Amino acid sequence: MEATFYDVVVYPRDTYHTENLQYGKHNEVICLWVDMGGLSLPEVIHIQDNNAELKWLLEQIHSEHKSSGACRYLIECYIKAALLLIARKYMHEKSPQDSINRVILYMRDHLSSEITVEEMARMIYVSKSYLSRMFKKRTGKSLMQYLRELRIQSAKAMLVSTDESIEDIAYKTGFNSPKYFCNTFRRHTGVPPRTFRLSERYSINKLQN
To answer: What are the beta bridge partners of residue 40?
Structure first.
């Protein structure tokens, strides 16, 4: 990654990296290590600070930290302001479509986990309402409706291709109870899971014979 003047790079915790400064050029680098209280970044963030807003905040943090009467609360406020500004710039530079794709891929890979709109919004650094609007605009469905359909599609595949019990399939596709799974499956397909399994397997065997 090549950084230029007014660039800001944020590395997730435990990410190995090195910096190489160009010899013979004026370089000003401000480094800040922040304990984010368990919050983890999904990737390296690289943004531009053309109007030097972040530079000013980082200088204030450094100056306050070095002062004899340093105020911890003021430093924390500066840090929070800097992090919020970084998140806003990051989302402005990143296209909404990329963010929605990331949410969809995450849901597909974590169907068995509990997934909420709030959690997905935090993952891509936007508000719950903004994510809901953008997701509906992109897919024509609400996030939770889309998630249910992903889970039903996965359950269909497991019912046909495996001999796992209805109960196991329910939990593996993210439903919190077999009863809720069966009711949801029937609403989406018109038949209960067991009937779907028998019907699909009968059709497959008939084609093969």
So the answer is: none
